[in-house]
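Researcher: Good morning. I'm working through a list of sequences from a screen, and I'd like to move beyond sequence-only analysis. For each chain I'm collecting a predicted structure so we can compare shapes side by side. This is the next one on the list. No need for commentary yet; just the structure.
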Amino acid sequence: MKTIAIIAGTLALLNVANAQWPPNTKVIGSDSGQFFVSAHGALSPHSLDLATRSGLLTLEPELLAVSCERIKHELLHELNMRDQWQGKIFVLLHPARTAEDPVTVYPERLGGNWDCRIDLPDALDRNQLVKAVVQACLLEIANRRAADRSVEIPEWLQRGMTRQLMGASEIKLILPPPVTHENGLTVTRTTVDFSDTPHSKDNTTRKLNPLAEAVEILHTNEPLTFDDLSWPTEEQLDGYGADVYSSSAQLFVNQLLHLKNGPDCLRKMLAELPDYLNWQLAFLDAFHGTFDQPLDVEKWWALELADFSGRDLLHLLTRQESSKELDAVFQFPIEVQIGPAPPMRTDITFQTIIRGWSRPRQLQMVKSKIWELEVLRLRISPDFIPLLDQYRQVLQQYYQKRSASTRILTGIGLLSDKSEAEAIARLDALDAQREALRRQSQAPAISASETESAAATP
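Model: Good morning. Structure tokens for this chain:
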């Protein structure tokens, strides 16, 4: 084990941390000098009891400083980066109150660098600990070129990378507290299962399949879409929904890392985050060799999920199946309330959405439907491809026009441009073609003998 420097009550350090510590605060510095862990007093009986009852990990400053370095080391390994830190990371331990105590991570501009502060209860879930350190390290990496504002790390990257590290080498990341005393020595017993680890001298505790837990969860739950990963709801980040989200995020991160130059692209994304207000723009710029637009990411991710779940998206649908699938793309069920009667379920057309919905809602819906058509095209019957392509062309052109501008300013006020009317007229014509194809696909097939018999009938 590398030497850990113990710094107790150092005034200069406390000023850098910008915190007001009690006189007896103990501060532990990690070997690299990047992490400083502070705690006031020993673990309380309440924290110890809470950890025992809830299966939490108790945190001691000396061991936590080592764990932080190990987590950072594994993160840098995944990103294929050297350790060239600039900002410090201060970890502040406080007595745990409940098993659900919040964990906060936030950057602070101190001197010429962005430092980071982590507030942790001293009894904590392992995943929460790794996630907090991963988030702080990612912030430190991405903020190295930041000026007046800190960057925002997408949730899928924080949680996905956390699960990736936990799945690959949890036993190496966290040093548990000692639990027994033997012959005057404090001993912690750790069992390593080598059946799932490569037998190499340098990697004896790195698992062969870091996705093992994610596979188990996602084979019984539907993986999340790229939009879900990008803009998760509170339900998806809480309770069991958090396991599904984190597993989907890990699979997403794992597949990105396995792309050509994947680690390089993720490093570039982090480096370019200060240049953008939206992380998606930094992502597309970093992965421009693979994805030209968000739809490319969504299509790639849909195919990755299809391959992961064992479904064959390239199996062509029959004409009847193709007709139903294409109809489903343009079905928009809504509930209508008329008087005191229960709400009724009905469908509206895409043209109704264009006429009545606001621009943001329209653009979101159009974008979603373009993606659905992209994926459906991979397996739809060849008879339906020309129609599908025309629908896609209409929606893409409408999306581009509406994204640029929906109204023009004239001397008499604001007038709608022609994009709405053009799109509605073209959609009406395509809907008529779709209805004709639907009738053809539903018509019973006539055998060759029946055809000959009908031809011979006078």
